[in-house]
Recover the amino acids of this structure.
């Protein structure tokens, strides 16, 4: 793959930043020019969050525009729906089936949309899984992000060992084993 | 060696490589990580100062003392530090002095959209603006050199997308910078009128020299591609231009003040159509138009919000983009919320229940203004809550005051709240101030502050005792209370707003995200006991949700703070078994 535009979307607190850091490291190891854009601040508190990872021979803007993403990793169903218009026509989307109600749903102002996965699958190439359950089985629900990275590595056809090296560099040593297990589970999920 | 670095991290690396030895800051998104990364270098003394003004004063002192010093803040922080800024422009420096300021176009986490380039202009201080992480590092190093060459502080301007994007940086070795000699020089460093008048003349001479330098420094570059379209741009906008209009020639401005007039004239003469692409204010545009050069800028591009490659392609190239936004109208928005277990939740529950007017401040607790709490009436700037409450009382009298409180965080109180409290005491106000002591600076991601008892490096230090501090400025009624003890909290608030003297309530409970804070784990709603009265929903906890015909607690979110168990009148919430 010559270039990749990738979006990671989810809810503040789900570990999307760490995932983008690992992906940036992977891109650097692949000898690409790379930019990773993240927004912190208010958005880290349960709000909708997005980080952009762009790599290729030369990357200028750190942002990815609508219809430009080759791959989207959605950490939550509703966020998958929110960001799907960023996917290009041939793009793939990995969706964690977890649902987190936003405040307007909690307060009863609006309903959480029904049948999101079916809606998405009707028009896009969707790879969905219950990453929360898989992470829990690996030993910690915090490894949801790494499970999803495993799926992504397989779909993008990137050398597994490069990912493992990057995880080694970015993830703290004491939780490394759990995370490597989570990565393998994700990697082998969609065959 | 090549490394992927956040813009802010690259700034820290630049300071390190330049041999900088002192750094001071107050945290503020998107600038915070600069000083956090600096604190990892043992060669640089670093500190969280109580506010940006003090931080800059510390950096000025170190510079006069002969060291290279750096001071970092967000755009609104520069307002706080503006007073010393304008005068250090007169005194000049000894060791290099660099001031980092991070603007936030689009207001991802700010209360206004402010263009700091005007500060450079009005304080007559040169300003550089990098457009990626490599330039962040390089420009900081050059800023130190310029500072010493021209005897002035140098501002380096960032924006959210530069501060918070990672790109590739080539690392270099640390320069061997020797502390400069300090010698007393009152005519330079004591800015009383007679001396300041002479220094102002020096400042104007310096500006003339800097104008020349701007043309020759190499910080501003012409990239000729065609003679058709030319774009003058800087910072992150440069990246958008390169992507959206790859066939345009570009004058990339790295030194945004003073602008390189000669280069601009030369560039303008080479292209048929000339655009200026700059986020926020028409800062270049107005100056270039004043030079008599025809440019297209804000008549085609917005003055508000962030730019993007797509926006430039649409506005300058009339390119159309397919958008199926209409189909996505049904996607519910997801605004930020107070975390599960947040200590502010109990407090806002009580304030809302009591129907009080709440004068608020900047921090996580600003989220108390959003549904479902909607418990905050006003929020202007850092530290303003207390002065505003006092103003409300002076304008509307005792009855109104007895239905009003100010809320302010621990770090914010130290930043600029304490002066407001002193004003209330001194001017015979009677307001009630609630200090939300969550034992950390929360919103910016957990920085230590003078009330936590730890330094930026995590070393134990003297801890400001908020109770004693408030008493010492003349507040006799100071109460410490746990915001999760709802009954007690309400009782205390009632008593304090009724009292005809100033009072402070210290609402004390640590942030739920601190590592040492351990709750007993997720709870559940026992459906048989639940009467569906929805009282538990009133606290606005993101973990309590409605599923079809019943309420339940999302086990992936609930930490087990038990606030909801105190609100449920039927004992229907209990610890969930594994």
């Amino acid at each position: 793959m010559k270039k990749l535009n990738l979006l990671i979307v989810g809810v503040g607190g789900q570990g999307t930043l760490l995932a983008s850091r690992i992906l940036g490291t992977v891109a650097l190891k692949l000898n690409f020019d790379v930019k990773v854009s993240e927004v912190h601040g208010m958005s880290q508190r349960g709000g909708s969050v997005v980080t952009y990872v762009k790599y290729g021979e030369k990357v200028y803007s750190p942002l990815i525009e609508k219809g430009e993403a080759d791959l989207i990793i959605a950490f939550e169903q509703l966020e998958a729906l929110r960001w799907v218009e960023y996917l290009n026509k041939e793009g793939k989307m990995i969706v964690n089936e977890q649902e987190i109600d936003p405040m307007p749903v909690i307060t009863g102002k609006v309903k959480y949309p029904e049948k999101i996965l079916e809606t998405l699958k009707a028009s896009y190439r969707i790879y969905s899984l219950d990453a929360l359950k898989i992470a829990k089985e690996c030993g910690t629900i915090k490894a949801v992000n790494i499970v999803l990275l495993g799926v992504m590595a397989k779909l993008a056809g990137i050398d597994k060992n490069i990912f493992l090296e990057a995880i080694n560099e970015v993830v703290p040593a004491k939780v490394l084993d759990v995370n490597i297990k989570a990565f393998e589970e994700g990697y082998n999920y969609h065959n | 060696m090549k490394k992927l670095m956040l813009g802010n991290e690259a700034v820290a690396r630049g300071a390190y490589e330049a041999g900088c030895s002192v750094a001071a800051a107050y945290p503020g998104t998107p600038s915070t990580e600069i000083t956090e990364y600096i604190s990892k270098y043992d060669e640089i003394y670093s500190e969280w100062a109580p506010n940006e003004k003090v931080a800059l004063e510390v950096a000025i002192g170190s510079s006069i003392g002969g060291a290279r010093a750096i001071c970092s803040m967000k755009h609104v922080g520069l307002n706080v530090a503006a007073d010393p800024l304008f005068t250090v422009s007169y005194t000049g420096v000894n060791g290099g002095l660099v001031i980092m300021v991070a603007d936030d176009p689009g207001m991802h986490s700010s209360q206004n959209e402010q263009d700091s380039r005007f500060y450079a202009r009005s304080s007559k201080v040169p300003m550089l603006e990098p457009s990626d992480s490599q330039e962040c590092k390089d420009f900081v190093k050059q800023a130190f050199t310029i500072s010493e060459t021209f005897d002035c502080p140098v501002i380096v301007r960032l924006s959210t997308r530069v501060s918070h994007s990672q790109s590739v940086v080539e690392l270099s070795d640390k320069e061997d910078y020797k502390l400069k000699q300090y010698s007393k020089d009152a005519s330079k460093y004591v800015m009383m009128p007679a001396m300041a008048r002479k220094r102002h003349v020096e400042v104007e001479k310096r500006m003339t020299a800097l104008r020349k330098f701007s043309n020759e420094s190499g910080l501003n570059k012409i990239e000729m591609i065609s003679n058709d379209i030319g774009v003058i741009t800087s910072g992150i906008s440069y990246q958008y231009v390169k992507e959206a209009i790859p066939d345009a020639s570009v004058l990339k401005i790295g030194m945004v003040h003073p602008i390189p007039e000669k280069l601009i004239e030369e560039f303008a003469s080479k292209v048929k159509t000339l655009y200026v692409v700059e986020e926020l204010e028409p800062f270049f545009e107005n100056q270039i138009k004043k030079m008599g050069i025809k440019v297209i800028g804000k008549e085609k591009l917005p003055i508000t919000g962030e730019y993007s490659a797509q926006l430039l392609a649409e506005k300058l190239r009339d390119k159309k983009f397919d958008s199926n936004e209409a189909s996505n109208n049904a996607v519910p928005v997801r605004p930020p919320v107070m975390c599960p277990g947040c200590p502010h939740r109990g407090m806002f529950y009580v304030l809302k229940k009591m129907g009080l007017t709440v004068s608020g401040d900047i921090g996580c607790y600003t989220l108390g203004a959003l549904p479902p709490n909607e418990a905050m009436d006003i929020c202007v700037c850092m530290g303003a809550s207390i002065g505003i409450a006092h103003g409300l009382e002076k304008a509307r009298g005792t009855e109104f005051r007895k239905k009003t409180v100010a809320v302010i965080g621990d770090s914010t109180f130290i930043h600029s709240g304490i002066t407001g409290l002193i004003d209330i005491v001194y001017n015979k106000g009677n307001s009630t101030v609630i200090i939300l002591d969550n034992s950390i600076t929360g919103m910016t991601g957990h920085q230590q502050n003078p009330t936590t008892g730890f330094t930026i490096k995590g070393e134990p230090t003297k801890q400001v005792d908020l109770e004693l501090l408030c008493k010492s400025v003349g507040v006799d009624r100071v109460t410490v209370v746990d915001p999760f003890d709802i009954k007690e909290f309400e009782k205390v608030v009632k008593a304090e707003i009724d009292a005809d003297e100033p009072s402070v309530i210290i609402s004390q409970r640590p942030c739920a995200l601190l590592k040492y804070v351990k709750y007993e784990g997720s709870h559940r709603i026992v459906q048989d006991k639940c009467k569906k009265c929805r009282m538990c929903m009133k606290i606005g906890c993101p973990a309590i949700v409605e599923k079809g015909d019943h309420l339940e607690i999302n086990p992936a979110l609930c930490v087990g703070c038990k606030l909801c168990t105190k609100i449920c009148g039927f004992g229907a919430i209990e610890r969930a078994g594994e």
The mean pLDDT of chain A is 93. The helical segments of chain A are 16-29, 77-83, 103-106, 116-123, 131-138, 144-156, 160-170, 176-187.
